[in-house]
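LOG
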Amino acid sequence: YDNGGASNRAVDAEGLFIGAEVVITLDNASVSVYNEVAQLSGVKDEDVEIQSDKVNEIVAKVLTIADYAANYKDYANMYLAFENVEPVQEYAAANASMSFTDGTNTLPVFNNARWTAGASVKIGKQKGTLYGFGTSYKGTAQLCNNQVKELAAFAPSCTLSDDSLTFAATGSEAQTITAVLGAGYTLGTATADAAWVTVLAIENGILVSVQDNTGDERTATIS
């Protein structure tokens, strides 16, 4: 049970991820049941130690929403996958709860706010495979996401007209990399890792200009 203590510290400070092996000292813990699911509570920060050199491959069990809803107690805390589903909402912030459907049945999904804090992650209404851990709330089956990649199939793509630009030896006139984004998206900010490059996010792309060349070949990366 994440009470703002041990697992928050592990995720935020040490990068806990699915498949990582951890050692939990149970001196402070107790076992309880919440909404028909067994859990540990009372674990403190110092009780959790991540074994960074030990990683287990976690293979998701593929289910249908109907099968999961009917037998959710059998899949408590298991890593699950639901194929060919799509968000019910047209667009939704990834750190909010939402629902997914296979066209017949609907599955509520609770997305852990920790991994999207400040990220402004969105998803689009397109079909893909949904991943997460089985849980329930007041007798209703739901899924819990812990990592952004569990929603990767639903992230609208952004295509760019160029992945590199070349400027003439005496050229500094601005060039534009056009960008095509999914509906509801706009470009945020653009930055470069070199002071001699100026970049600006504009309505339909990224405007790139350079200072007059020195005669030497130079390379910069734009983000």
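LOG (cont.) second protein
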Amino acid sequence: MRTSNSLLRGNKVHGLTVDKAGALWFGLTGQGIGRFAVPPTGAGWVPPAIQYVTGSERLDVQGLVARGDTLWALTTHELQRYRRTSLGLPIATYSIPEATPLFAANPLAVGPDGSPWVGTEAGIRVFHANGTSEDFNTRNSPVAGDQIYAIRVDPVTGVAWISTSSGMNRYDPGYRAPAVPQIARLDATV
């Protein structure tokens, strides 16, 4: 698909996602969040009509994920939750421990249970559906580094791949250590 930058408010797109209805959502640096229906390709191509989310005009979007009827938007300072069917204000906002890394490739992912994973300068924050959050960093987990550049969570297994400033990790939240094997017993009579 080809488009013209004149259709966009800005030219630095930091987040892209496609929702279940096939609309393409994009997040811009300092220009907010927009969406458009992906037009069919062919000779009669017409630039799509872009709609913008009200109140997002000043956001520095770092990542977007559409899951079900929810659009998750990660800005430099908070995570916002929107209704996919609305172009209005967020229905919820969540604080993050520190700013997202400046050159993060994909600092936002959503697990199979709907929990968003946010990569920041201070590690990872996972927001659980029950309202709690959990932080992972070099002080409390084996994550390779605190500066998180990309997170990918498998939508079926929940296994997370994490890219940091110091290396890469694989984390399986469902992993359970195997039972300790019984040590063979040796009885001797003297």
